[in-house]
UniProtKB/TrEMBL annotation:
The keyword Hydrolase does not apply. This is Aminotransferase class V-fold PLP-dependent enzyme. InterPro entries: Aminotrans_V_dom (IPR000192), PyrdxlP-dep_Trfase (IPR015424), PyrdxlP-dep_Trfase_major (IPR015421), PyrdxlP-dep_Trfase_small (IPR015422). Keywords: Aminotransferase, Pyridoxal phosphate, Transferase. GO terms for molecular function: transaminase activity. Residues 26-402 form the Aminotransferase class V domain. It holds the Pfam family Aminotran_5. It comes from Cypionkella sinensis. It comes from the Bacteria. SUPFAM superfamilies: PLP-dependent transferases.
Length: 410
């Protein structure tokens, strides 16, 4: 079976049975997706039967620790990395901040430069820009003000003198949504002697990464946007992780997954992240059958999700492109973008999102912490953008409902 079985998919999400959440067509997925049933069940079980200090010499502690280890091991296998390469933290913003503190020490006094973009959500921009306080040169890879795109030729110019040690970029922006060619960009940066950090928060909901294929050194994303609990997840290469100074307790410095987690872990939510792997495996089993290789299962599910999303978002992109009173941010084709669709209106966007709420559509408006790209594209931040974000559980009927509501409200 190569076509996504939407009835099966939606049966995996309790939200669709909720009298509260099920009352609206949900287009706020970029702010946080619904958790799958497997995650909810695991979280409930942990609080009911495992909520003690994990790894102790008694049954509840052993079970809790085993489930935390299971989450790390199974997610690592899906992303084709070793379990110690996967770190959990309270959020991606927090994980990025901790990583930046390690880089701060790593590059101090090195006469080095880093590259950031103005396509990013601020979480993957502000923390890196603050390294200028330590004398580290910060170079900005700027987007095209018309399209919001990043041109690799511009990055090549920034890398030309050989002083750049780190390139930080999004897999895709939370407002521009264009999917950047991370593998090609990583190769370009590596050839110039730079490490690569990728913010995958806006892409990972549409398929977990195949980390080795991307060629980057760090990939960060949020479990609560990938159908899980509110945790940040960081994947880091073994050599870069060893090169950076540890940020956790000194006696944990020998453990890669503890080196960059200074705060105590949320045991229950880490354990519940194994439900994300349960869900991916359930999708694979339902659509494709048995497959022993976890990374192959992940790639197949990734492609299944993307194929559905590209088809379902097309009518929305067609409708918006045909209107003269809105400006579509990012690529016109669904194949080139995540299905996170931001538009500039001829008026303030917030009242429009409120009107859509009254029409049974759940979405929002504002700057979404993407102040830099919106300013670069000449968007009035007081008016903001209207953002409608889909994922693989979004139906064609819901998109039709959204288009009909937009026709009444705009």
């Amino acid at each position: 079976m190569s076509k996504l079985d939407l009835n099966f998919v939606r049966s995996q999400f309790p939200a669709f049975d909720s009298a509260v959440l099920g009352s609206h067509a949900f287009f706020e997925n970029a702010g946080g997706s619904y958790p799958c049933r497997q995650v909810v069940d695991r979280l409930h079980r942990f609080y009911m039967d495992r909520k003690v200090q994990p790894y102790g010499p008694y049954p509840g502690a052993q079970a809790g620790g085993a489930e935390m280890d299971e989450a790390r091991a199974r997610l690592a296998a899906l992303m084709a990395v070793k379990p110690p390469q996967v770190s959990f933290g309270p959020s991606t913003s927090a994980n990025t901040y901790v990583l930046a503190q390690a880089v701060r020490v790593w590059l101090k006094g090195a006469n080095a430069a880093i590259v950031v973009t103005n396509q990013d959500h601020e979480a993957n921009s502000g923390v890196w820009r603050r390294l200028a306080d330590e004398g580290i040169e910060v170079r900005e890879w700027q987007i095209d003000p018309q399209t919001g795109s990043l041109d690799p030729a511009d990055l090549s110019a920034l890398l030309a003198d050989g002083r750049v040690r780190l390139v930080c970029l999004p897999h895709c922006s939370n407002v521009v949504a264009e999917i950047n060619d991370v593998a090609a960009i990583s190769a370009l940066a590596k050839a110039a002697g730079a490490r690569v950090v990728v913010d995958g928060v806006s892409y990972a909901p549409h398929g977990l990464p195949d980390f080795p294929a991307l060629g980057c050194d760090v990939y960060l994303f949020s479990a609560y946007k990938t159908y899980g609990p509110h945790q940040g997840i960081m994947v880091i290469s073994e050599d870069f992780g060893a090169e950076l100074p540890a940020q956790g307790h000194y006696f944990n410095a020998g453990s890669l997954y503890k080196r960059f987690t200074p705060a105590g872990p949320d045991h229950a939510q880490i354990a519940a992240c194994a439900g994300m792997a349960d869900y991916i495996d359930a999708l694979h089993a339902h659509h494709f059958g048995a497959e022993a290789d976890a990374a192959a299962r992940n790639r197949a599910v990734h492609d299944l999700m993307r194929t559905h999303e590209v088809a379902v978002v097309a009518p929305l992109l067609d409708y918006l492109a045909a209107r003269n009173d809105v400006r579509l941010i990012g690529p016109r084709r669904g194949e080139d973008r995540a299905p996170t669709v931001a538009v500039v209106l001829d008026r303030a966007a917030e009242p429009v999102s409120e009107a859509l709420g009254r029409e049974g559509i759940a979405c929002w408006a504002g700057d979404f912490y993407a102040v830099r790209p919106l300013q670069a594209m000449g968007v009035d931040l007081e008016q903001g953008v209207l953002r409608m974000s889909l994922v693989h559980y979004t139906s064609a009927a819901e998109v039709a409902q959204l288009v009909s509501a937009l026709d009444r409200v705009l």
